[in-house]
Amino acid sequence: MAALPFYDTADISALNDQAVILLKLFGARGYTRQEPSILQPAEIFLDRSGEEIRRRTFTLTDPSGDELALRPDLTIPICKHAVDSGASLPARLSYNGLAFRYQPNRPERPTQFFQAGLELLGLADAAAGEGEILGLAFESLRAVGIQDFELRFGDLALFGALVDALELPTSWRERLKRNFWRAGYVETFLRRLGDGAEKAPSRAEVEAALDAQTLGAPAGRTREDVIARAMERGAEAAALRLDPAIAGVITKLFGISGPVEEAMRETRALLAAANIKLDGPLTAMDARLKAIAALGLDLSKVRFTAHFGRNMEYYTGFVFELWAKDAEGPVQVAGGGRYDTLMQSLGAAKPVSAIGCALRTERLLAARKFTGVA
Amino acid sequence: MALTLAIPSKGRLKEACDAWFSAAGLKLELTAGARGYRGAFAGLPGVDVMLLSAGEIASSLAAGDIHMGVSGEDLLREAAPELEGRMHLVCPMGFGFADVVVAVSEYWIDVSTMADLDDVCAAYARTHHKRLRVATKYAQLTRGFFAHNGIADYRIVPSAGATEAAPAAGLAEVIVDITTTGSTLKANGLKVLDDGVILKSQAQLAASLSADWDAQTRATVEALLGKLSAAAGSALYPALASRLK
Question: Cβ(B159)–Cβ(B166) under 8 Å?
């Protein structure tokens, strides 16, 4: 049976008092509070977040047969509303409310929990947006009495840039970007590459092969889509192998994890040895670290993990977590990042830059209590 | 307390199951007439045999409602995804062979591996802003296998029957289904991916770890497995005993 929390007077008062502090801070920084409905149309989560979130989402069918979900987060409903209502951008939005997630194999974890959060939508200057959200996340922790915390982050964009710098067919790059965080993936991937001996098929050959399939249904794909990908796949098999030295660099880079300054030194050394230039992303990383230090967080409290991936699949670039300590040890009290494709997937006409963060307020309280003790 | 053992109530699985127990000297006698759904083994007291559907047997084992049961490994693993702590597979029975597979339309000539499917799933999510649908009655097995292959951009649509018709009917783009010869899939214009075999299944004798195991049922199961061990060629009870708390 799932863990179903019960809040007694002391618990709920403490949570409410803390929420007042956080919402006041958000308001003072220009963030407008919103409260989406707890029940949401199921498909807005299920179509966007993939099966990993689907298996953790409580869904139900209303008496008329419509499929609803208890919101597993507040980001998607808030972004959906911003799209549907044509909110003027940039928009600064905040929330404080319950989210619900089934916890497979972790019956001790609560299936409902409070989240307070921020969404910054449509600010073109990505670095400024990141600084603003990180800064507010730090301020939030300090405002509720947590001074000692650690930042852990990764940046999908850095590895996107690395992969783009390699001489690879487009589809291979896409695969690496999608799967870079998976242990052992690169090795498996390299084994799959062609040996250059095969001949790429002609369009006529591919069309003939497709026309020979009389029984199969198109199953959601167009003839042109199938032909294009079949030709691409044939061309890949005929392409050259990836230089083993480059392959080694990718594997090593994906494995980097540690205190941020050390991790960046290691990254630079690896790139230099492989003669790969990533000046843009590396300069951006330097600027980011300066900004973090300026926000009052000592860089010894910052960890970089190359394969850092959040399991909410809509994140697209910078992703981060804040960790504090409670009586049981380190605990993640906040998380967030960039999700530049979400607004468009919810119906926005063009891409909207977006970054946000969510605070786990019950864990904040536990961490606050622990600082009181320690 | 009697040891409850559920066996399939009809079809080839029932006949093969009867023959398998008979070969070990355990003759099933129905207690409520030939059309009844309860029985016992001649010469082995304390076993209450129940005839249920293979699906009910799997879920009853997972829930701990019965001590032992015979069902397809596909259904057992679907009912208790990790098996750990919930079920113990006592012994494969050598019949009821079938594979749980990932199948796509033969029209997809560019897709023959899970890696190809990963590409197509990602491209579909990008162009359609929604996930490619996988029709199946094996949601748990599908999730585990797709995660193992690093595929995230899909969603499962539950299918109660005739799953092989889903792609042509426009209800899903991909299916995960059980097949013995593959001829039904082929007749529906579908092909199994080269590395798309999720499980090579067969009938299994399984024990529920969450059922109520008292001293008497333990003694009964030791006697039962003692008879079956000779036929299976290895001692079956010690492995189960070590799993029972």
Answer: yes
Domain co-membership, B55 together with B104: no
- Asked if A213's CB is within 8 angstroms of B106's CB, the reply is yes
Residues B125 and B31 in one domain: no
Assign residue B221 the CATH number of its domain.
3.40.190.10
State the Rg of chain B over Cα.
20
Report the alpha-carbon distance of residue A83 to residue A16 in Å, rounded.
30
Same domain, B107 and B89: no
For residues B173 and B104, membership in a common domain is answered with yes
Mean pLDDT, rounded, for A201-222: 90
What's the confidence (pLDDT) of residue A182? 62
- For A301-325, give the secondary structure using H, E and C: HEEEECCCCCCCCCCCCEEEEEEEE
Q: Which of A340, A333, A354 is nearest to A138 (CA)?
A: A333
Residues B87 and B206 in one domain: yes
Task: Name the strand (E) or helix (H) holding A276.
Answer: none
Chain A residues inside the 8 Å CB shell of B120: 221, 229
With an 8 Å Cβ cutoff, is A268 touching chain B?
A: no
Burial B212-226 (b: 16+ CB within 10 A, else e): ebeeebbebbebbbe
Residue A185: is its pLDDT beyond 70? no
> In this complex, is the C-beta atom of A178 within 8 Å of any C-beta atom belonging to chain B?
yes
- CA distance to partner chain A, nearest, from residue B177 (Å): 16
- Flag whether pLDDT at A95 surpasses 60: yes
Q: Give the chain B residue whose CA is nearest to the CA of A211.
A: B107
Give me the number of domains chain B comprises: 2
E runs forming strands in B26-173 = 28-30, 38-41, 44-52, 68-72, 87-92, 98-105, 132-136, 154-158
**Cβ of B165 under 8 Å from any chain A Cβ?**
no
The parent domain of residue B235 ranges over 3-97+202-243
Residues in chain B: 245
Q: Cα(B151)–Cα(A57) distance, rounded to whole angstroms? A: 19
Order of strands, sheet of A318-326, starting from the edge strand that comes earlier in the sequence? A32-33, A91-100, A112-121, A354-360, A329-338, A318-326, A150-155, A302-305, A257-259
Q: Domains of chain A by range and CATH?
A: 9-160+278-373 (3.30.930.10), 167-241 (no CATH)
| Contact status, residue A155 vs residue A318, Cβ threshold 8 Å | yes
Do B93 and B160 fall within a single domain? no
The alpha helices in chain A, defined as continuous H runs, are 9-28, 43-54, 75-84, 126-143, 156-165, 170-179, 185-192, 203-211, 223-238, 244-254, 260-273, 279-294, 342-345, 361-373
CA nearest B108: which of B190, B30, B26, B175?
A: B190
Produce one character per residue of B128-159: b if its CB has 16 or more CB atoms within 10 Å, e if not: eeebbbbbbbbbbbbbbbbeebbbbbbbbbeb
DSSP state of B152: -
pLDDT band at A239 (very low <50, low <70, confident <90, very high): low
DSSP state of A300: G
Interface confidence, given as ipTM, is 0.78
Residues B213 and B181 reside in one and the same domain: no
The pLDDT value given to residue A190 = 63
Cβ–Cβ gap B104/A219 under 8 Å: yes
Same domain, B87 and B151: no
